[in-house]
Structure formats: C-alpha cells, structure tokens
Amino acid sequence: MMRTVYQNCNLFVGTKDELVHNAWFVVDDKTGKLVDQGSGKFEGKADKQVDLADQYVMSGLLNSHTHLGADPVLDKHYPQTETSTTFNALKNLREGLQGGVTYVRSCGVAFDVDIKLKKMRPQHPFEGPGMRPAGMAVSIPGGHGDLPLGQDHEYNACHLVNGVDDMRKAVRSQFKKGAENIKLMATGGIMSQGDQVDDTELSLEEMKVAVEEAHSKHMTICAHAEGRLGIHYAVVAGVDSVEHGFYVSDEDIELMKEKGTFLSPTLIAGHQIVIHGKGKMSNFSYNKMCEHVDAFYEHVGKAVNSGVKLALGTDAGTYMNPLKDTAKELEELVRAGVSNFTALHAAGLGSAELLKVDDEYGSLEVGKYADFLVLKENPLADVRAVQQENKQVYQHGVRKF
Questions:
Q1: DSSP code, position 60
Q2: pLDDT tens-place string over residues 273-285
Q3: 3-59+362-399 with 61-349: one CATH topology?
Q4: Burial letters for 192-217: b for 16+ Cβ neighbours within 10 Å, e otherwise?
Q5: What is the CATH number of domain 3-59+362-399?
Q6: What is the CATH number of domain 61-349?
Q7: pLDDT tens digits, residue range 53-67?
Q8: Is 92 helix (H, G, I), strand (E, B) or coil?
Q9: Integer Cα distance of 103 and 108 in angstroms
Q10: What pLDDT score does 75 carry?
Q11: SS3 for 265?
C-alpha cells in the first residue's frame, strides 16, 4: 500500500467550528481515501511526505444546484444544441474543479447530457467534480423551464406535464435514462418570460406522485420553488430540498425542520443578476430579481437561523454565475446572516447529506475521499479565503490544480 502523508497544516475537518493546528493526515494513494490523521509530529510510515507550509486545508466544495450544460454568458449567437450543451458541460466541469468544486448535483441539463457524460466517464475520463445527474427537469407548458431547443426548436429543455400520469411517466423516463436526481419546477422564476415568482405551476398531487416515484427508485428530488404556495406544496409533497425559497413562510420553516427538508438558496444567482444584469437581459427578468432580492436574503437567513438544514447551491450556469465561482455563495450566505461555520458546513457535510454521499464526501474524516483545498488564509475567519484564485485542489488524493 502506497501512502502519502500531508503535514504541517491547519486542518478544518468540517465537523466542528474549529481548526486542528499542526495537523497531518495520511492518504492511501490507491483508493484516494484518508486512512489516518492527527496533530503534532508524524511518527508513522509513509512513502511520500508533503509539507503544506502551515496553510489551511478544508474539504472540496459540494455544489447541490448546478446546470452543467448552461452558458453563463447571454450574448451567444447560435442555437442551443446537444453539441453546444456538451461543450459547455465539459468546460464548466473542468473549470469548476479548478475553482474547488469536487462534487455536484445536477438540477436540469438539456438533452440529458450530464447523464450521458457520467455513463461515458469510466471509459473516457475527463476532469471535473463527481456528479449526481438529473437530465431534463419537469415543468408545465408555459412554465419555468419550458424552453424550445435545437437547430429548429425541435426539442425542449424540460418534460412538460399535465396531470399525475404525465408526471409519473416523466420521472420514470428519467430513471430509465440513468438520472439520480429529479428536478421539479414548482413555481415561476426570474428568467422565464411569462410568469411571476409566486405563480404556482405544479399541483400538490403532481409533486406527491413525483416524490413517490423518485424515492421508490432511490433518487433524490428537488423543487425550484420561489413563491409561498409553491414552496408549501413542495415541502408537503416531501421533496428532499427546496431550491431558492424566496418566500418561505414561518409555517413551512417549521415543517421543513420537522421533515428534514433542506434549503438550497442559490443567493449568488440573484446577486449577480442585480449587480450585472441591467441591459444584459430582458427588463422583465431584471426587474423581477431587483423586486424580490431583499426578501430572498431575509427569508433565507431566517430559515437557516431557525434551524432549517442548509445545503450550498449556486444555480451555476445562470448569468455571470459559472461553476468555477461556487465559493462566492459562501460570502452571500454570510451576508444573509449565516455564520462562517454554517456556510462552510453547507458546502461540505450539508450538501453531502442532501446528496446522500456523506459516507465518502463532505468532510476530511478517516475513510472518506481525500478531496481537499489548500488555502493561504483561514476560511473559518473569513469565507472569502475560499475564493483564492490559485488554491491547490486535490481530488481523491491527486493534485489537479
């Protein structure tokens, strides 16, 4: 067994609001997993030693809300096809890993490109985070995500459903393809041009059927839900996570705590639109985001500080919001009133628990994969430390950047 010991670092394991100083940890080079750790002088045996020069080490980031095939620039002058979506996905995955993201959950990719890439990966490896793919999301005709695609608009980004039978078929179709997550569009959204954020688009009955089908097949299921009633339906139906949650009510905060429902806010997506979106997108979308952004931050802060489980997601692929900038969400969570530790926990064990991979990811504990970042500054003191551009990124014990 070949082993590498990494020593002389300040280690944020991810389970407690503290650092282990003068820390060391040992990685099995074959499995890529941690096999030992401690502090002080390393007295064991290792085939290779790496001195981390008193820098800060933390788990790689897990992003629970991504759109891997999207282009975060709005001025492209060609139709979205499977080719362009695949090109974007491979580019975003590589750059995302360089930005410190080591595992992602997909929340909707046209042409099921994420599913196809994951199936190909064992024989045709590519650089990027581990993936929990979703493929096509599920919406209604005219709803959020109803977007014609292809050279001649012959495809749609989503399954468009009318009623529970359509919904059951859509979820089963995604399962057959290889999806591991189902994405529901429960309400209107910012970028859709015909609806408002409080439009309730999927019925409670449709979402209940979706949850039943997804959970019976060991898939996770999440809901884009911004308006109050759509959020309520999603929580009652039993989704694993509410995405965005602009207007989560006090009643649903308590219900989410009771049911263990996660909130994946994606604050950075709204922030980037407000700061950079004027004149770059439709006035309808820009004005919607500006109208709701303060309530967005307020409700997210209240929900998390009331005890709702928090995962880190960014809506990566939306305007000026690439996967490589995932670490910026940490800063926005703190701006919403979340503690540094709570934000970092969301990017690690919080997202790992939601994605059901916390036995191998999300913290730097013995038995888990050695996916870690090496930083110059202390992220527990200032989460902006994770935005360091030239940080070291390790995946399964192998330095990638």
A1: P
A2: 999 999 999 999 9
A3: no
A4: beebbbbbbbbbbebbbbbbbbbeee
A5: 2.30.40.10
A6: 3.20.20.140
A7: 999 999 999 999 999
A8: helix
A9: 16
A10: 65
A11: coil
Give the pairing type, strands 33-39 and 20-28: antiparallel
Say what percent of the chain tops pLDDT 90.
97
What's the burial of 310, exposed, middle or buried (CB within 10 Å: 0-12/13-18/19+)? buried
pLDDT, the chain, mean: 97
Residue 340: pLDDT over 70: yes
Residue 3 three-state SS: strand
What is the residue extent of each domain of the chain?
Answer: 3-59+362-399, 61-349
The encoded tokens of residue 110 equal: 């046209």
The two structure tokens encoding residue 361: 């990811």
Sign of the dihedral through C-alpha 191, 195, 200, 205:
negative
Mean pLDDT across 211-227: 98
- Which amino acid makes up residue 49? Q
Rounded to 10 degrees, what is the CA torsion of 154, 159, 160, 165? 130
**Pairwise CA distance, residues 375 & 364, whole Å:** 15
Q: Is the pLDDT of residue 76 over 80?
A: no
Cα 56–chain centre separation: 23
Instruction: Kindly tell me if the per-residue pLDDT of 15 is higher than 70.
Output: yes
Contact indicator for 108, 143 with CB cutoff of 8 Å: no
Q: Please, are residues 34 and 43 in contact by the beta-carbon 8 Å criterion?
A: no
Q: Are 279 and 320 in contact (CB under 8 A)?
A: no
Asked if 86 and 68 touch (Cβ cutoff 8 Å), the reply is: no
As to burial, measured by CB atoms within 10 angstroms (0-12 exposed, 13-18 middle, 19+ buried), residue 56 is: buried
